[in-house]
Amino acid sequence: MKLVFLWLLLFVFTFSATTFGALNKTPRLSLINRSLKDPNAVSATVSKDLQVFFYNQTLDHFNFNPESYATFPQRYFINFKWWGGAKTHAPIIVYLGAEGPIDRDIEILGFFTENAPGFNALLVYIEHRFYGESNPVESSGDPDSVEAMAKSVKNETLRGYFNSAQALADYAEILVHLKKKLHAHKSPIIVVGGSYGGMLASWFRLKYPHIALGALASSAPILYFNNLTPQDGYYSIVTKDFKEASVNCYNTIKKSWNEIDRVASMPEGLAILSQKFKTCSPLKDSFELTDFLNSMYAGAAQYNAPPKYPTTRICNGIDEASNAPDILDRIFAGVVAYQPNKTCYNMTSEVSQTSIGWQWQVCSEMVIPIGITSNVSMFPSSPYNVQEFIDDCKKMVLEDISNSILAVKTTEGSHCLDILNSKKTDPDWLIKQRTEEVNIISRWLRKYYRNLGVSKE
Amino acid sequence: MKLVFLWLLLFVFTFSATTFGALNKTPRLSLINRSLKDPNAVSATVSKDLQVFFYNQTLDHFNFNPESYATFPQRYFINFKWWGGAKTHAPIIVYLGAEGPIDRDIEILGFFTENAPGFNALLVYIEHRFYGESNPVESSGDPDSVEAMAKSVKNETLRGYFNSAQALADYAEILVHLKKKLHAHKSPIIVVGGSYGGMLASWFRLKYPHIALGALASSAPILYFNNLTPQDGYYSIVTKDFKEASVNCYNTIKKSWNEIDRVASMPEGLAILSQKFKTCSPLKDSFELTDFLNSMYAGAAQYNAPPKYPTTRICNGIDEASNAPDILDRIFAGVVAYQPNKTCYNMTSEVSQTSIGWQWQVCSEMVIPIGITSNVSMFPSSPYNVQEFIDDCKKMVLEDISNSILAVKTTEGSHCLDILNSKKTDPDWLIKQRTEEVNIISRWLRKYYRNLGVSKE
């Protein structure tokens, strides 16, 4: 059940909308695994104090072309409930939206509502450009509109402005505007993000140090770019998680891929596989099945949150079926354990704003090389197609980068769990992790107010 | 002869290509006052080791539009003569080109060639995009081509990419490329710039801290933007310089503007003024004369370098003519003292790459509000047209901004003189200023190599 969870530097992706084994894998970096809802979560305090605003955002922050001056409405939310106010220079905690509509994130980000009272903090949530209702293409008012996203990434010129540098500049512009509007010139700003949003938070502190006093980057794979982290990083940890859950489970999964290929190559093989795995529609290619299984294993490891620990659940299913002679029946028992009570299993990836938008971001900018080359991987070999070998393995060891860039390590963990709503069932390490993060931010703020007192007042 | 010279934060502009009194004044920020050549300068050691290169530069670093991927050749120079080499991780000192062709800058930047031996440093000089031979418009091969610049700023789309954020990203890309090419991954980089180039150096260290270990910003008015520095800043120091040179001189100049206006309004007034000031062609407007005089006074103060101290020279001319009954004859005596032995004086601004290019940069981005509102100014009132008053007068007092942002102050000074070629006649304060700058950089490098030794080797 234990896994090495490297906070800040974790290899935190699942695949979607691509076939397993393809070279251009598409990592997805959401806060939560949307395929598995958890009804046990304590509901966040989304109060009437939460107000929605739209900022008239600049399309292109970096050039002075005629089209650069175009604007679009960017959505953000403010929760005033706990704010100590501008007069006391009370802090502002800002969530930097990531690759999806911001609505659901607000509900589950317990870190904000749980810590705002202690910090007397204003809470600000800003939606990432092109997602939700912050799409430069005329919005239908539906924050989940797949059509608006599809339209904007088809637009060769418009999509050029859909990138992280522009998103960071958006956040900077809104925050400068907000501090002015609220007369909160001396209120320190802490930016927070999860996964891709965590990378944005790190980069924001780097590029806009005059705006953000500090950044909390939850599960942000900031070093998973070329030449910094080995391509096997992500899947080696998924494999490790399963091996730690059960060696028998690991061996079963490792052997299963060849068996799927063998059956698929038989006459009526796809029909046999469709029947065995209760697919909602007949398989057109065995890739559909292997991609489904790959996503399930990766998602279980990435979001291996207490109290359910999905890797353990899958392995329990597989291990309990160890008497079944067909290895594929054992694998299917794992599927059922993970997602029980389903009449059929949908093997085709759902198309969403996130799958379309993130695909563009991955193809244009967020080139995160993930591959599988290791013999001990429980996944079949699938090397990432890069010319140069990746040497900086030491980067995988997470250490504090400096006195001011702090790494909060835990031996267990689940993707972005630290900033989500706390639960009664939270284990000690998670409580400790959250406390440590809050303590670090408290130190930043204490130092800030101490300096403010000495030099300005 | 004394003037308060605020290194790092000085108000360091002359006007060009605009009429005096116009609201949209165009500051120019060159290293030297090109209207006055100084043959006494010790020639820089431009050796055969200086090689020219062209980098295939990305037009748009911040977007992924089809045209973003366009490239243009960007010129840079490397001087290998004194470099200790990649194996010893010897440092790289980089000049960030500013608003003009880089050729002449290289010749006069004594700071580089004089300190390279002591630092065992590689010297790199990178030309700013759109200037010299680094213009995305097809170049004629003439680095001073006014036509190429005029063409590019007329191109609505192309000129959009002519800005500081893109220029900084250019430098980052070339430096990353260079370190790779030279296998100099552990060679620390110090960036240096003067005036606008000094602002670029400051901003480069801020935005690319992973590339530059430190920055030397010579005479860089980084805080002369809206709400940070009073609009009178620049001209109040020009006035102060002249008052310190001679109170009589100051009073004479202060009174002269009304007299020019009075004569200009007379019948044949412009002809009288043209004759009195020996203009090369008849004045079409008295603005031509007042702009000429304004530029002369401002240039003299901004580039008030030893051993000649042009403010003193002008004032000596004015004071020695104090018996002349007509105040305009006294003013003209100052002109002659400043530029002796001329058969006539050219009152019209010369059009150059810099005047055209910098005009675009000022109009699109570098909005530096300079105005004259003070009663004690020796210049006529000419308020900058901004709505809000500028309050942060304390910013005019130069202090170290932090332990790592150091201000090197001198009570005397001349624009960018610290990084230009040293001369035998250099006064003590200038030698001391240069020594202090070199010492600071030495400390950065010592600390860098100490850390490198501990953690990496």
UniProtKB/TrEMBL annotation, chains A, B:
Any one Gene Ontology molecular-function term assigned to this protein's record: dipeptidyl-peptidase activity
The UniProt entry's GO biological process terms, in alphabetical order, are: proteolysis
Which Pfam families does the entry link to? Peptidase_S28
Q: Which residues form the signal peptide?
A: 1-21
InterPro entries attached to this UniProt entry:
AB_hydrolase_fold, Peptidase_S28
Coiled-coil stretches, from where to where?
none
Q: Which terms are listed as keywords in the entry?
A: Carboxypeptidase, Glycoprotein, Hydrolase, Protease, Signal
Q: What is this protein called?
A: Serine carboxypeptidase S28 family protein
Kindly indicate whether the keyword Ligase belongs to this entry. Answer: no
Signal as UniProt keyword: yes
Which taxonomic lineage does the organism of this UniProt entry have? Eukaryota, Viridiplantae, Streptophyta, Embryophyta, Tracheophyta
Q: State the similarity comment.
A: Belongs to the peptidase S28 family.
